[in-house]
Amino acid sequence: MSTMTTTTTTTATIATTPEQLITDSRARIDAIDDRIIGLIQERMAVSTVIQEARIGSGGRRVHLSREMEVLSHWSDALGKPGTSLAMTLLELCRGRV
Fold first, then answer.
1. pLDDT (tens digit, 9 = 90+) per residue, 9-37?
2. How far is the C-alpha of 49 from the C-alpha of 51, rounded, in Å?
3. Residue 24 Cα distances to 2, 4, 6, 16, 21, angstroms
């Protein structure tokens, strides 16, 4: 019985050890995490623009019905853990309340 697994790519077949597969997959996860962090930072910046415009026009910084829409969207997509993620995301994007 071989300890090697074969992974097929679009251009070639590569023999990979489980350790290499894990290492490569972890590198992909790290790259995905970096993209997610970048998107969250972008969302925070856009949220700041919205908050400043709302406050500048006499409104409140936090729009609770909009936050409920966001929570519902994440919950629908990811279930209960999505709600927790959305709560954290909203907390990050609110800034100091």
1. 555 556 689 999 999 999 999 999 999 99
2. 6
3. 20, 15, 14, 10, 5
- The DSSP code for 3 is S
Number of H helices, E strands in the chain: 3, 2
- In angstroms, the CA 87 to CA 97 distance is 14
Q: Which residue has the tokens 């100091």?
A: 96
Return the DSSP state at 28.
Answer: H
Residue appearing with tokens 């972890």: 26
Please give the model's pTM, rounded to 2 decimal places.
0.77
Token pair in block for residue 53: 């415009």
With contact defined as beta carbons under 8 Å apart, do 94 and 62 qualify? yes
Query: In angstroms, rounded to a whole number, what is the distance separating the alpha carbons of residues 92 and 94?
Result: 6
Mapped onto helix, strand or coil, the DSSP state of residue 67 is helix
| Cα distance between residue 20 and residue 71, in whole Å | 38
